[in-house]
Structure formats: structure tokens, C-alpha cells
Amino acid sequence: MRITAGTVIVLCVIVLALFPGLVDQLGVPRTFAWLIALAAIGVYWKKRQAPPKQENTPNKGTIEIAPDINLTWEVSCREKTPSEEKSSELLREATRRKENKDLDGAIECLREAYALMEQSDLSHTIETYLRLPLYLQQAGHYKESILEFEKLLTNAPNAIAREFGHLTKQEQGYFSAMRLATIYDKMRLASQREKYFSHAVCYQVLSKAIRATSWQLKDEKEHVSRFQEPEIWFNGLEALLKKGKKEAFAQDIVDKALEFSRSCTQEAFQKLAADIAELLEIPLEELCIIKNTDVPAQIYEEPYDNDDHLQWLEDSVRHHIFQARDAWNDGNYDFARQEYQKTAYAMTQMDGQEWAKEKLKEEQARFARNDPLYQEIMPIIQKKVGENPGVLQTSIYGTIPFQKDDIIYALYFGALLNDIRREKKGRTYTLFLPDDDLIKLPE
């Protein structure tokens, strides 16, 4: 039996009430003894009413995502930003509107929520993003839903690279394949609801094929072998084919799938999709067929052979890098520039890892070379410097029609790209045209 402070206090009160003579023998005045007992009761009651003390430490743990992949997580206790709170509320509102049969309103809420989520470093499951295409299909916008599915397919490797940048390329490939398999399965559902049963069959087979690829990337022979058995491919296939009145093709489709499972390569995946489309008489261009099933992430392999340096950078820096790359790829130079500038500031707060910083600086310089703003400012600066070699950088401000920060940006990277030469002078620089014998960064 566990004896608590409350138990001791109760026993003392009982002794005082039932055995006052014992208290007298101890030489303690009864009034004083009762005061002590009442005070103890008060302190104990106050302690009981106080809220439990919360530890101000992050939650940590390790969970097994798959064999040989243990994901260590650490959840900080920071409060959500107003933007994050707003996106969460919009997601809940989308659910409420869908339940009230207001699908158009639900779709509008989802689009607003996604726009806010892009500004946050919080991660969200693929199921959160799959709500939009599924709602679009249910609202009668099937073609638009397929376009949204296609966006998710295209972005899957990049999304995994941002969320699991600390993992190896092989591990990222596993998660990327699992994400693609989930998307294709929901495309199967949307097509089935529209009674496009042949399309649904194709997406179901492709979903299983990519799931097999995920285990191949993990070199999990036992799991891969399951996809070399006909039963896993027949499961659910015959029912869909029967609804489309094409049940006679079941064995042929399974044979094609089993042929794919012997290699699980990119070429085999493309052939499987083409073969099924031909069997079911579906124009191949009507299907969303991803081009890379065996590449973990299509994240700017050039100008670097790999992104190994990113694993040495903080999560916040990696987040801004991937945001910048995506924006650069989409031609959104203003947003890409802002994200690269955020990485530059964050790196000034980091100690060590100089080689990783240098690799990132080279990437930023290559972006600047292609940045329309840089291309517009630099010729004007070069003309000014050519007319007045050794001019102070501070004297350039206000003489050309650009913001000071934009001029500083152009001059900093202009020096790295050898479009301008800067020499330190006090708290500023003197500017010169570049020397011909300086080494430039490779194109």
C-alpha cells in the first residue's frame, strides 16, 4: 500500500480527535497541534488544486516506418503561427462544408489552406493534399481533378526531398514511391466513381507496380517476392474488369504485371502502362504516367553531382533552399530570390560547415546569373564603374533607378561571378571592372 501525504495528515487528525491524552503526554498544546494539522490540510489541498507541471522539453521518439528504416522524430512545442492556425481552420471548414454538401465551398477552403501551407515549414501528409482532387471529382470536375492528381505525381519526389532531406537518396526513393502509389490508388478511386473502369484498372495496377518498386529500392526481397505472385494482382482487378465488361483481359493484365515484377525498373514500368493501355484500348495520352519511378528526387542534379552538402545544413536552411529551387524551376524569380536571401542570412548564424556553405554560395551565384533583376542591374553598374573606376559602392546608391538592397545583391554576386571587382575600403568597397585573368565560375 502506498502511503501519501494526504494519508499521513488524515491519520494525524484522527489521533488528535480520538486520543487527545496522547497529545498531552507529548507535551504539545492541543490548540497548537490543531493549528498545525489544519495548516497541513490547507497546504495539501492547495497542492492538489494546482495544475500539473508541464515539462518544457520537446517530445522525442523513434518509430519504425519500415524494416531497417527507423524515423527519429522530435516535435517542438512552439505555437502555430497565425497563418498556420488559419490554414488548419480552413481545412476543418472544408470538412464541414463537404458534410453539408457544399463541395464548391469546400474546394475554395482547400485552395486557400494550401496557399497558406506553402508559406509554412510544417509538413502535411499526402492525404491532406489528395482531398482537393477527390472533392473536384465529386463536384463533377473530373478532368480538373486529374490535373490536380498529375501535379501531385510530379511534385512527389521534391516533396519527399524537402520533408526527409536528412535521409539517404535510397530511403527518400522508398518514401517517394510509397507516396506515388497512394496517389495512383486515389486516381483509381476517382476513375471508378466516374465509371471509367478501364482507367481505374490501369491506375490500380500502376499503384501496385510502384509499391513493388518501393520495396525494390529498399532491397527487401521478401516483400518484392509477394508481387511475383498472381494473387496480389488479381485482388480487386476482376471486379473492376467485370464492371467495365472486360473481364476476359484479367489473365493478360496479370501476366504483364508479373513480367514487370521481375525487374521493377523504369523501362518496365513504362512498358507495363503502355501494354495495359493497349489491351484495354485506352489512348496512352489519356493516362497520367510518371516518367521517373526509380529516381528518388529530381532536385537540380546540376551543377552538382549530388546534394550531400545539404545534410550538414540546418532544417530551416534546407527548407528555404528547396523552396527557392522550386520557384526558380517555375520561373518565379522574385520568390526564389527571397528564399535564397533567407538561406544566406540563416547561414550567417551557423558555425562551421564552411565547405557546405561554399557549395550553397555557388548555387546562389548561378541563380543570380539567370536572375532577370541581376541581368538588368549589372550592365548599368558596369557602365557607371567603367566611367569612374574605383568609385565607392555607397556612391552608386541613388544614382541608378533601383532599390539599395537590389544593388547590394547585384554587386555581391557580381563579384562572385566576376562581372565586377570589389576591393574593401573602410566600411564600403571600391568598384572596378573585372580583370581578364580572374577565374570565373563554370557555366
Explain what this protein looks like in three dimensions.
The chain has helices at 5-18, 20-25, 30-49, 82-99, 103-117, 126-138, 142-163, 169-193, 197-217, 221-226, 230-234, 237-243, 250-261, 266-279, 315-330, 333-348, 354-370, 372-387, 393-396, 404-416; strands at residues 59-66, 69-75, 391-392, 421-425, 428-432. It has 20 helices and 5 strands. β4 and β5 form a beta hairpin. Among the domains are: 5-49, no CATH class; 123-286, no CATH class; 362-443, Arc Repressor Mutant, subunit A (Orthogonal Bundle), CATH 1.10.10.10. It has 443 residues and is mainly alpha-helical. α4 (82-99) packs antiparallel against α5 and α18 (372-387) crosses α20.
A few lines on this structure:
This protein has 443 residues and is mostly helical. The protein is built from 20 helices and five strands.
Blueprint of the fold:
Blueprint: H1 5-18, H2 20-25, H3 30-49, E1 59-66, E2 69-75, H4 82-99, H5 103-117, H6 126-138, H7 142-163, H8 169-193, H9 197-217, H10 221-226, H11 230-234, H12 237-243, H13 250-261, H14 266-279, H15 315-330, H16 333-348, H17 354-370, H18 372-387, E3 391-392, H19 393-396, H20 404-416, E4 421-425, E5 428-432
Antiparallel strand pairs: 1-2, 3-5, 4-5
